[in-house]
Design brief:
Layout: H1 7-20, H2 31-43, H3 52-59, H4 74-79
């Protein structure tokens, strides 16, 4: 029964396996490879983008017939107990903060 390899033998076995596989020439740092990647980088904005409408259709999600913001929806306002005469000024936004007396 063979003994398991020690740490040094594991390193040698791993390095042998790495050397046994050919190195991909596209990963080498050469002028040609850099030029090719630069051209790909410069052409990327000219490539067609994603078709987001098609993506939404493929998801088969339900979409509202008339989309609206939550604060514009009467149903949302009723469910969250917000009055119909809602305005930011009613919440105190835009007003100067009240100063409290420190009892002096």
């Amino acid at each position: 029964m063979p003994l398991p390899p020690d740490g040094t033998q594991r390193v040698h076995n791993a390095s042998r396996e790495v050397c046994a596989h050919p190195i991909d020439e596209r990963n080498q740092r050469t002028f040609g490879n850099r030029l090719r990647e630069f051209v790909h980088f410069m052409l990327a904005p000219l490539a067609p983008g994603f078709d987001l409408d098609r993506y939404d259709r493929e998801l088969r999600r339900p979409f509202p017939s008339v989309p609206q913001f939550a604060t514009d929806s009467k149903v949302w306002r009723r469910e969250h107990a917000i009055a119909d005469n809602f305005s930011p000024a009613a919440l105190g936004h835009g007003q100067a903060p009240a100063t409290a007396s420190r009892g002096r």
